[in-house]
């Protein structure tokens, strides 16, 4: 099964600070995604990427940047963290020929 | 309006019983569906996909899709306590997009 890892697993950040969440996959998948999960909103797509060095905006990109420096790595960057960005963040990947997305274990972010 | 709607919000069944979940899309462009399961503290994990009208069975899990009514269901027979989790329906549009739209989920509790 696809292996997707995330770091850190949890983080406390201060309002206005910079936060970087990292994702690594070892399955040679082309597609990678960042979601956030909030009670009452389910999973919502923030950014995604089809290929290294290219990212696309998802459904809720405001306040977030993404970086795909290699096929295996995909980062989510909060330049100025805000209270409303407290959530659990999930990274996922999928292959070119299949559509099933494989999720990482998540990062729990608390912005104070 | 939520494009993928799930019901019920929560469900409790006895061990060995049948658990049934419903999902309806409001967008006829959604033609591909997945069911995901998320245990507490973990990332979502794909259970099964269904792209064609009719039933698809994998072990204790059966999915049913009716494209005309944009309705997809999931049934778990012989439910086990380990099936207790949050179940998501996810949909993808036809075409090249890889974006998934998730419902808000149904919480299942299997009573021993």
Relative strand content of chain A: over 45%
Structural shape of chain B: globular
Number of helices of chain B: 0
- The residue fraction in helices of chain B comes out at under 10%
Find the structural class of chain B using helix and strand composition: mainly beta
Strand content of chain B: over 45%
Distance between the termini of chain B: 37 Å
| Count of alpha/pi helices of chain A | 0
**How would you sum up the major sheet of chain A?**
7 strands, mixed
**Terminal-residue CA separation of chain A:** 36 Å
- Poorly predicted ranges of chain A: none
> For the largest interface in this structure, which chains are involved and how many residues does each contribute?
A-B, 24 and 17 residues
Q: In total, how many beta strands of chain A?
A: 11
* Average pLDDT for all residues of chain A: 94
Explain this structure to me?
Chain A has 112 residues and is mainly beta. Chain A contains no helices and 11 strands. In chain A, 36% of the residues are buried. By secondary structure, chain B is mainly beta. Chain B has strands at 4-7, 10-14, 19-25, 30-38, 45-50, 54-58, 61-66, 71-76, 85-93, 100-102, 106-111. In chain B, the strands form 2 sheets. In chain B, strands 2, 4, 5, 9, 10 and 11 form a 6-stranded mixed beta sheet that branches. A 5-stranded antiparallel beta sheet of chain B has the order 1-3-8-7-6, with no helix packed on it. The mean pLDDT of chain B is 93.
């Amino acid at each position: 099964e696809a292996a997707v890892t995330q770091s850190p697993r949890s983080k406390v950040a201060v309002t206005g600070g910079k936060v970087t969440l990292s994702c690594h996959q070892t399955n040679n998948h082309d597609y990678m995604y960042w979601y956030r999960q909030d009670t009452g909103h389910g999973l919502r797509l923030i950014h995604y990427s089809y290929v290294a060095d290219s990212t696309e905006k998802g459904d809720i990109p405001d306040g977030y940047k993404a970086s795909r420096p290699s096929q295996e790595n995909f980062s989510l960057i909060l330049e100025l963290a805000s209270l409303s960005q407290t959530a659990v963040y999930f990274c996922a990947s999928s292959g070119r020929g299949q559509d099933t997305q494989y999720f990482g274990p998540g990062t729990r972010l608390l912005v104070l | 309006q939520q494009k993928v709607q799930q019901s019920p919000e929560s469900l409790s069944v006895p061990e060995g019983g049948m658990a049934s979940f419903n999902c309806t899309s409001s967008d006829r462009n959604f033609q591909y569906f997945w069911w995901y399961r998320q245990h507490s503290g973990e990332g979502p994990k794909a259970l099964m996909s269904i792209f064609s009208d009719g039933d698809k069975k994998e072990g204790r899990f059966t999915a049913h899709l009716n494209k005309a009514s944009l309705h997809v269901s999931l049934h778990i027979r012989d439910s086990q306590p380990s099936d207790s989790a949050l179940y998501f329906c996810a949909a993808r549009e036809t075409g090249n997009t890889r974006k998934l739209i998730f419902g808000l989920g149904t919480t299942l509790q299997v009573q021993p």
